[in-house]
Amino acid sequence: MSHIIRIGTRDSELALWQANTVKTRLENLGYQTVLLPVKSTGDLILDKPLYELGITGVFTKTLDVAMVKGEIDIAVHSMKDVPTQLPKGMVQGAVLERANVEDILVHKGKTSFMTAGKATIATGSLRRKAQWLHKYPSHTVAGLRGNVNSRLQKLQDNDWDGAIFAKAGLERIALKPDNHTVLDWMIPAPAQGAITISVMEDNTFVKEAVARLNHTETEICTRIERDFLRTLEGGCSAPIGALAIFENEKIHFTAAVFSLDGTQKAEVNTSFSVNDALDKGIILGKQVLNEGGTVIMEEIRKTLN
Ligand SMILES: NCc1[nH]cc(CCC(=O)O)c1CC(=O)O
């Protein structure tokens, strides 16, 4: 059967890099493809913090609509931007092997501020803000929105000491500056560093094609992280980090929810056999809710709503 697979993507440099990776992989398997870039709501509204937009999936919605309308066959996303609840009829077609999961601080050549009392760090992410303030309570966090390229530019244009980025994003488009510090203590976003492909459940030909790109270990780890997120958040964006690492048939899992100001956290740190992985994200999510998470989440909902 001859069928050109229409690949939908956002039009940022990072999104295009990710979509082109999928395009090449599919073509190497003998499929014909075409790339269809679109602008997403999350890229068009840049003057508000993401959580104030009050819509989940600001980066994925435009592509979701295009797929439901039949204008594209698949959508390629940074998995951490994808809401835990997919639109009706849409499924996770594949998760590619994960790249680096860490966050990094890009700075301007000196890092003495990390031990000093005063510093201003820029990020638009509630998760990064809360964890930074948890570790450096005397620092200030400034808001920062935009795609990776414009966020790097804004760091240069402002007198901030540094800004936080996903290492994977900067490495993919070869923009990681020498002036950076890996934040190995910061818990990444659920599914950070992973690329996912959405497809309509009834699109059998394309579903079978993209399934060939799936990386099982990454799929298992990101499922646990996203189950944990879904169990805690209940549709509200909150400072939640989760990381599952697959090692010798075991999974090491670290996750936490923080209060918005970073003063409180409820966390879990555990290991289990991959054979027990199935419901772990939900089980450990409930455990964290019981051990202080519910109180923190209620406070966050009051503040953000
Ligand atoms: N919404 C921003 C976003 N979504 C995915 C990535 C990078 C790639 C990844 O983490 O998977 C980024 C940039 C960043 O967080 O700095």
TrEMBL record:
EC numbers for this chain: 2.5.1.61
GO MF assignments:
hydroxymethylbilane synthase activity
Instruction: Establish whether keyword Transferase is in the entry.
Output: yes
Cited InterPro entries: HemC, Porphobilin_deaminase_cofac_BS, Porphobilin_deaminase_N, Porphobilinogen_deaminase_C, Porphobilinogen_deaminase_C_sf
- Enzymatic reactions: 4 porphobilinogen + H2O = hydroxymethylbilane + 4 NH4(+)
Q: Which CDD domains would you find in this protein's record? A: PBP2_PBGD_2
Annotated metabolic or biological route of this protein: Porphyrin-containing compound metabolism; protoporphyrin-IX biosynthesis; coproporphyrinogen-III from 5-aminolevulinate: step 2/4
- Keyword match Transferase: yes
Q: Which residues form the Porphobilinogen deaminase N-terminal domain?
A: 5-207
Which family does the record assign? Belongs to the HMBS family.
Which NCBIfam families does the UniProt entry name for this protein? hemC
Outline the subunit composition.
Answer: Monomer.
* Record PANTHER family: PORPHOBILINOGEN DEAMINASE (PTHR11557)
Please explain the role this protein plays, according to its UniProt record: Tetrapolymerization of the monopyrrole PBG into the hydroxymethylbilane pre-uroporphyrinogen in several discrete steps.
Q: What is this protein called?
A: Hydroxymethylbilane synthase
